[in-house]
Write a structure and sequence with these properties.
By secondary structure, the chain is α+β, with helices and mostly antiparallel strands. The chain contains 16 helices and 16 strands. The strands form three sheets. Strands 1, 2, 3, 4, 5 and 6 form a six-stranded antiparallel β-sheet that branches.
């Protein structure tokens, strides 16, 4: 039973209950506001990424335009490398993005580099992109590589030099990755945002944070997947440093490079945390104000309730009359009702006693009726048994006499044997029916002999050994004797059908104070299942027979110890007439 709650607790609940939907509404409003802030930040992230992609594309296009202009110079037609070298140095100086310009021929030989005098023998690096430019005749961007001159990490914009549809040379615009990093660090970008540029294979080309550690390294798996699927929407991932972020990736024109911008999750959740803090502060302040108001109200009502409780206890005991009004209508009505509590209690007790007496009388009538029905059943069984024994037995005897009086020629020997066997079977069946309806041994020789005969007839054909040992069975009334016989009969049927036992034992003893215990045990290994309808009905029948005689039936089936039925009958019941 749950502990009762004080009136102060109920008042607290009454006042705080309206705050639940109010709190929910305020919390939902704050949450929606934070989500809207997060949505606006996501849109800003997408816009910033697209702006970075446009800036990078414009810068690359400028370098590509300058190199294309250089590739169209007349010095190429004349194969005047000195003039082309001088022109390239002027182009490089005019473009602050470019660190150097080089020219590579079809034999992968570096013709010149603007950072070195013409004719210097220098190695060419990252030739895969150069080969692609010779093969496709289209400009492309290389992966990051170490410059053989400055040993800095650089990338190259490769522009093929075409004449009459043939690629003669490849002009390479070399620019440092730090230059690219400047492109992705525009003014106004929050400090905790992270930007990066990646090539078509997902290699990091530039990075706004820690470029020395990660440039030239592959991107994170999530970034590689976003690049492979050209993901347009914002997606969640992790940076190389393990920071959870919301990221957006956009392609830089048709160059095959990508710009990615990531904002840490903590930046996204900061508005929500701020709003939740404000909401919590507001809620706690409101609850504190309500608590102070409620405290005064609860003290006032609690004092009135205490006085009502004291007056009610005294009124029920009948010592003093109720005090004056409390000033609270409901409490005054409760006090007036409590003044009649003793009358109500007595009326309820009288009603309970009357209903209890009626229930006992009805139960007694049902018990007497059941006993009378059982006696009638036994009388009817006895009558039918006598009818079967006297009538059918006499008929079979007369038929046997008639058969014996027939001349030998009237029937063949085979017919005579058949009729004899049929008559013998009929006599045996009549005797069996008579014994099952009302065993003669029960009335003639007592319960011990009747049970021994029953065990031989039921269990012996199934090769189940049964021992019967009854003591003081004569102290049982006729009704109890018949009930014990029927209970044992049902129990042996269950042993035969369900227990798979090899042995059975029936014992009976008179035990103090004034009780007789009849026990049926077997050594079967299969106790009855709860849903076994047939056996369940048999057990119910045995229990009802014991209850009708004021006794009880106990059933036990310990694991591995067979099945036990124990009947306990009182010996001090009123002796009934023989049935």
């Amino acid at each position: 039973m749950k502990a009762p709650l004080s009136i102060a607790t109920w008042l607290w609940a009454l006042v705080l209950l309206p705050t639940v939907p109010l709190t929910a509404v305020l919390g939902y409003t704050a949450y929606q506001y934070a989500l809207e802030r997060e949505h606006q930040l996501t849109l800003s992230l997408i816009d910033q990424t697209e702006e970075l992609a446009r800036r990078a594309e414009i810068q690359i296009e400028r370098v590509s335009g300058a190199l294309t202009t250089l590739s169209l110079a007349q010095a190429v037609e004349r194969h005047d490398m000195a003039a082309l070298h001088a022109f390239a140095r002027r182009v490089q100086q005019a473009s602050p993005t470019l660190s150097a310009i080089s020219l590579v021929d079809r034999d992968d030989q570096l013709v010149f580099l603007t950072l070195s005098p013409l004719g210097s023998r220098l190695p060419a690096a990252q030739l895969d992109s150069v080969h692609e430019a010779f093969r496709t005749g289209r400009p492309n961007l290389s992966r990051p590589f170490k410059s053989p001159v400055s040993n800095n990490t650089v990338v190259a914009l490769n522009v093929p030099v075409l004449r009459h549809g043939e690629v003669l040379y490849c002009l390479r615009g070399i620019f440092s990755v730090s230059t690219l990093a400047d492109l992705i660090r525009p003014e106004g970008l929050p400090a905790d945002w992270l930007a990066g540029i990646f090539d078509q294979e997902g290699t990091t080309v530039a990075r706004s944070r820690s470029p020395a550690l990660y440039v030239g390294q592959p991107a994170t798996p999530a970034m590689l997947e976003a690049i492979a699927h050209r993901t347009r929407a914002a997606w969640s991932g992790k940076t190389k440093e393990g920071i959870d972020t919301l990221s957006v990736v956009r392609q830089i024109g048709d160059w095959g490079w990508f710009v990615a911008l990531a904002v840490p999750d903590r930046t996204l959740t900061a508005p929500l945390e701020h709003e939740l803090f404000r909401f919590t502060a507001l809620t706690l302040g409101t609850l504190a104000l309500l608590s102070l108001t409620l405290l005064v109200l609860c003290r006032h009502i609690a004092r009135r309730l205490d006085s009502v409780a004291d007056d009610a206890r005294q009124a029920i005991s009948g010592r003093v009359p109720l005090a004056a009004s409390t000033g609270i209508l409901e409490l005054d009505e409760l006090r007036r009702s409590l003044s009649h509590a003793d009358l109500y209690r007595q009326a309820i007790l009288d009603q309970v006693q009357q209903r209890t007496a009626e229930l006992r009388a009805a139960q007694q009538r049902l018990t007497e009726f059941a006993r009378q029905q059982e006696d009638n059943i036994e009388h009817e069984r006895l009558r039918i048994a006598r009818e079967v024994h006297d009538q059918i037995g006499a008929i079979f005897s007369g038929v046997a006499m008639l058969l014996g009086g027939l001349p030998p020629s009237a029937l063949s020997s085979e017919q005579r044997r058949t009729l004899d066997a049929a008559l013998q079977q009929g006599v045996t069946t009549a005797r069996r029916i008579t014994a099952e309806l009302r065993p003669p041994l029960l009335d003639d020789l007592g319960l011990q002999t009747a049970l021994e005969e029953l065990a031989r007839n039921v269990l012996t054909p199934a090769q189940i050994d049964c021992q019967v040992d009854l003591a003081a069975a004569q102290c049982l009334t006729a009704r109890q004797t018949i009930a014990c016989y029927r209970i044992v009969q049902e129990a042996l049927t269950n042993v035969l059908r369900h227990s798979r036992a090899a042995a059975c034992q029936i014992t009976g003893r008179a035990e103090p104070p004034g009780a007789y215990t009849l026990t049926i045990t077997d050594n079967g290994q299969s106790p009855p299942a709860p849903d076994d309808h047939g056996r369940h009905f048999g057990l119910t029948s045995m229990r009802e027979r014991a209850l009708l005689l004021g006794g009880e039936l106990q059933i036990e089936h310990p694991p591995g110890q067979g099945f036990l039925v124990r009947v306990i009958l009182p010996l001090d019941t009123e002796r009934s007439q023989d049935v």
